[in-house]
Design goal:
The chain has six helices and 14 strands. The protein has about 220 residues and is an alpha+beta fold. One of its GO terms (molecular function) is catalytic activity.
């Protein structure tokens, strides 16, 4: 399958989240056309730019398929009814971490985007668990690989709910988001895999550096 439907386009603003802490993890659906710029949707905010946002993490997609799975783990929660409940910018069903690869390119409305990295649940871990009021979610993400992923923007454009997300090119066919997550986040990489990841040009520089450091 190469074509999916964007069920919602979601953005958020940084708001008080836990005392003095701010977070923009709560993303709400937008109506009409939304600009897709080099650093993401306009407007969309990230409270901590050191671990979210920027050209290498411009758009976040957390598969809608996972929401039903989480209900079986934590029970009903209002955020599981929201397309941007996990901080996702794009609500899509049927596209999961094992089906996309680092460097895959997709036509999103009139924009062109590229898969850059898995989302790392430790960036920062407590925000997901605070949002849902349930401890142990990060451990479940690491265990199951239900992490979501980021895109960089190759060509700017516009997108609206109901538009297509069409894969137009396969990137590193041996490196699905699931495999990269398992190797670098779950810590199960072999020395050979670390060497390959350190040289994987479409992977974000931060994770390439992490692979190179662990390789030694």
């Amino acid at each position: 399958m190469t074509l999916w439907t964007v069920e919602a386009v979601c953005t958020g603003t940084a708001r008080p989240f836990n005392g003095a802490e701010l977070s923009a993890i709560t993303k709400r659906p937008r109506e009409g056309l939304v600009q897709v710029l080099e650093e993401g949707l306009a407007p969309d905010e990230q409270a901590d730019r050191s671990v979210h946002g920027g050209p290498e993490m411009a758009l976040h997609l957390y598969p809608l398929n996972h929401h039903a799975w989480w209900r079986g783990i934590i029970g009903d929660h209002p955020a599981l009814d929201e397309p941007g409940g996990f901080g996702s910018n794009l609500a899509v069903t049927g596209l999961t971490e094992d089906l996309v690869h680092i460097g895959d390119r997709f036509r999103l409305g009139t924009a062109l985007i590229e898969v850059s990295q898995p989302r790392q649940p430790r960036q920062p871990c407590w925000k997901i668990e605070h949002r849902f009021g349930h401890k142990g979610m990060v451990a479940q993400i690491v265990k199951t690989g239900r992490c979501g992923w980021y895109f960089r923007v190759i060509e700017t454009g516009e997108v609206a709910a109901g538009d297509s997300l069409e894969r137009v090119a396969i990137g590193a066919a041996d490196w699905s988001v699931s495999r990269v997550f398992r190797a670098l986040v779950a810590g199960k990489a072999t020395a050979e895999e670390l060497a390959q990841l350190a040289d994987l040009g479409a992977l974000t520089p931060r994770l390439r550096s992490k692979a190179a450091t662990r390789r030694g």
